[in-house]
Each structure stands twice: as C-alpha cells, then as structure tokens.
Write a structure and sequence with these properties.
The protein folds into 2 domains: 342 residues, TIM Barrel (Alpha-Beta Barrel), CATH 3.20.20; 90 residues, Immunoglobulin-like. The chain is α/β, with parallel strands linked by helices. The strands form 5 sheets. It has an 8-stranded parallel barrel, surrounded by 4 helices. Strands 13-14-15-18 form a 4-stranded antiparallel sheet. The protein has 12 helices and 18 strands.
Length: 441
Amino acid sequence: MEVIYQVLPRFWGKGKFSDWDSKTFSYLKSLNVSAVWYTGVIRHASGRPYVKGDPGSPYSIEDYHDVNPYLADVPERRMVEFRKLVARTHNAGLKVIIDYIPNHVSPDCKDLPKCDWCDYDWTDTRKVDYSHPDTRKKMLEIVLFWAATGIDGLRCDMVEMVPPEFFKWLIAKVKKDYPELIFIGEVYDKSNYRKYIKELGFDLLYDKSGLYDNLRAIICNGASARNITRNWQFLQELQPNMLNFLENHDEQRFASPWFAGDAGKAFPALAAGALFNGSSYMIYAGQEVGTDASEGAEGRTSIFNWTHPEPLKSLYSYIHTGKGLTQDEMNLLCRYRELFGNLVSPVFSEGFNYDLCWCNSVLLGFDPEKHFAFLRYKRLPRKRKAEAVLVVCNFSGESTEMQINIPEDLRQKKELGWLPQRVKVSLKPWDAYTKPLTSTQ
C-alpha cells in the first residue's frame, strides 16, 4: 500500500522544484508518506487567449516532452532541475508520481493527433484522436520518455474517456521495460473497477464513487455508516487496488463550508479510509492543517490561477523554522501523524481486517447508522499469537460509550483465542478510537 501526498509544486514554498528539500521530505516521512504526486509538472498552455486563469490548467498539455519553465530556478535547465527533484525524492526514500493526461491536450499541442472539439466545458483543451494511426505509437513514446526520467508512477487522468483497449496495450508494453511503474486510474464508474484492474492492468484506482461518496454522504447528509460495509463487500478482492482520499484537486476541501466546514470532523473518515481495508491513501497538501480554500471558489483551491493558500505558507514555514502554525493547526497535524503512524505496523500494512458492525447492537451503545467498528490483526513471525488492533469510528456530534463485541468465530482462531469477548470504548464527537488489544484486557 502507498500513502501518496498530492501537491502542485507551484503552491509550495516559492513554487520551484528546488523548494523540495530535505526538511520537506523529512516532514512527509513523519506522516508516513511513501510517494509524492507532483501535480502539474508537464508543460501546459499559458498566456494564450483560450487559457483558463493565469497561468492556466495543468491539464491543458502544450508540450508532452517538457516541464513548466516557471517551476525551475533557471528555466533553460528545467529538465535538469526536474531530474534532480526525482533524485532528491528517491534519496529521501519516497516515490515520484506525475500526471499523464491521455484524453486531451491544449489546442496548440503538436505532440499528438487531436480532434477539433473538446469534452464538456474544457475549452482550453482538444480531444486526442484515437482513430488516428499514429496516436498509439506517440503515446507510448511519451510514457517511455517520462519513465526514463526515473519516475515511479503515473496518475492517469479521466481514463474512462479513452478507448479501454488502448490502456490494455499501453500498460502491457510499458511494463515490459518498467515492470514496477505504477498506473493509477481516475475511474468513477464502480462497475468498471474490476475491468480496469483485472483486464487493463491498472495498479490502483480512485474509489471516488465508492468510499469517498459514501463518507461524504455520511458526514454531510447523515447517511448510514452501514454503507461503508456495503462498499467493502462490493470491492471484495479489489480492496488492495483502491486509492482512498478525502481531498484532491478536483474535490472540495474537507474544511471548507461546502464540505464538512470543520477539519476536526475528519478523523472517523480518515480511520475508515486509511486503516480498514489495506487500500492506499492520498493526502492533498494542506489537508493535514485544515486548509479550507477560503482564497478559492466554492471550496476548491484553484488549479488555474496563481494562488498561495495561507495555510500552505504557514505549513512551509513550520517545516523550515518550527514556527508558523496555530495551536489548532498543530493539534490537527499531530492527530494526522498519529493516525497515519499506525500504518507502520504490519497489522495495518499487511494484516487482515474484520468488520465488527454485524455483531454489535444499539443495546450495547453501538449505533450502526453512526458508528463503524473493525479489527485488524496479523500473526507475526515467531509469535504463537497474532497482534490485533481495534478501531471504532464515531460519525456523530455526540460523545458515546459502548461495549464492542468480539465474535466467537474470531476468538476460535488459534492465534486469536486470547481476544476479550467485549471491549469498552469511549468516543468524543467525530472521533476515532484506535486501540491495540492485549491478552490481559
């Protein structure tokens, strides 16, 4: 599993590749991050009449073999500086992910055959023409070009708008030379999950229409927490291929008034998304200090304009000087570190999960509409019994006390026979309880 930190480099520090230094990488390691998704690296259209905002969208690619000059200290050496960024990231023990936009390019892009129209209101783009005989060859050249720079993965944009047989061909071709290259698909139709993983070869898929939409409905609309279980049952063996998140550049910031309106409500959703089913997880830069996109429109940090959200400035200052964050921001960051620190344990990174909701009831204080509970466990080498961690999530504005049942079928397992029959849990509003269980409990 991966913990991916998504960031537009132009938002970070002075907006240069060089701002990604040892202190920044040490900070990411403190969140248990394993990969950085540098969003908006490949050169996009800017300063043209059709461009949205200034400098424009990173999804309107102008030159697929170049990076944005504004990200370099010396624009003429921008590809050298990008390769140095890749090397610094790797030296810190982190992977590098960049965007791959196969559906559309800017009207001025010369790299690929394109149609004379755009999808939706993406007027700063033109649709790539997959009926043209040169398109596949050129796309393969592009992906191999970036793979040769040393990157570790591609976040593939809007893949459901591209002929699926193209990806089956492309991924198989690329992985002959770069078998470890990670392909992450932005897929929204849940009925396509199995196809894109099993048939086309994607390594990870957004679980946007699954877990994200369910968590958002629980938080914003009071939907049932039972839907977390239903989504897990739908995924079955695809769980390790999912990429969970509460924020990314397309979605509204969690702390914004258009979503939860309070960054402190995130923890039950984070625990369910990051700890339950062994899926990979994505954090959007500034999420961990409660960035609310107050400088943007309708809860989103703009990807079209020059903007530098104050919480990201404060976070960068904190990383480099130890100062800059408010006490509330520090408290939030500490909780993020605590929660994602769990993933260091093999219980979470490699272990099994067990949904406890079916065997708990309102009679013991557990409300399946508002609470979610599960056990993670793993038998470790040279130990006669497994280690186990209980996680309980409270998706309500009320404090609660409950007795969590541990069912007989779990306790009948030889390595789990020591588990207690019940565990007493106290939870604050919008919080998550994470507790290692011991044989003396």
